[in-house]
Amino acid sequence: MKTLMYLFLCISITLFTNCSDDDSSEQITSLTSEIFNIEAFEDSNIFGTIEYFKNSNSTITIEVNLVGTESNQSYPAKIVFDTAADYDATNTEVAINLVPIDGNSGQSRTTFSTLEDGTSISYEALLDFDGNIVINKSETSQVIVTQSDIGQNILTTNTVSYPLSEVDVSDISGTITFTERVNGEALAEISLVGSPEGGLHPAHIHSGSVATAPGAIAFTFNPVISKISKTNVAKLDDGSPFGYDDVLSVNGYVNVHLSATNLGIILAQGNIGAN
Length: 275
What we know:
Layout: H1 2-7, E1 14-16, E2 27-38, E3 47-55, E4 60-67, E5 74-81, E6 94-102, E7 107-112, H2 123-127, E8 130-138, E9 141-151, E10 155-166, E11 173-181, E12 186-193, E13 200-201, E14 203-207, E15 217-220, E16 224-225, E17 228-233, H3 244-249, E18 251-259, E19 262-273
Antiparallel strand pairs: 1-2, 2-3, 3-4, 4-7, 5-6, 5-8, 8-9, 10-11, 10-19, 11-12, 12-17, 13-16, 14-15, 14-18, 18-19
Family: Belongs to the Cu-Zn superoxide dismutase family.
Organism: Olleya marilimosa
Protein name: CHRD domain-containing protein
């Protein structure tokens, strides 16, 4: 991995767009570049980097480099709108279809100047893009092998965690962790211990504290599925802005419920923010 990162830390290189949306035999000079990590999805063990190049002809080149890919396999890749936590394979809109990653080399290179809908995009706009990159196992499979937030959705090092203690069911507990994004929003990750595999459990931020419960629901998380939930935090259920800094000061607590039809049974609970 260190070797891979080293090879692509250069600020200015010369590219040949021999495999791109804007196919051309002319030589293009890169004026600057930025590189970011691509994380493995669950236990795929495939990871790497994505690098953006600002070209002298006003195009952008994206180069993906992965390790752990299988020989003679082709991995479809795309940049989609919104965060990875919001991703829905059926409904999420594709922003840019990338050239598939060659499993033999683990590499792909795409050069473009517009999004799929024809909208022009600049290098600077791509660096601030509200999206994430998704790479699938094959053209016929929706199985994700790597997925990472990009642009303004990239996670910072600012993070805070709160314990979730057992309530109505013995030996089920967990944690909730909030991590700040570049744009000030947050990724919320709920992790349970002791809950059954395959369970689907609603979770919310409630107003007030555990001591004053029950409180009204202020924010709804994506359900906890098989012990894990990931949710983008940008606004409350009523539409009010609610980002990372607001989490730190909120007068609230988190409940994880047994099911949508058994909200009265609480699996885990914990104070957050000001509490």
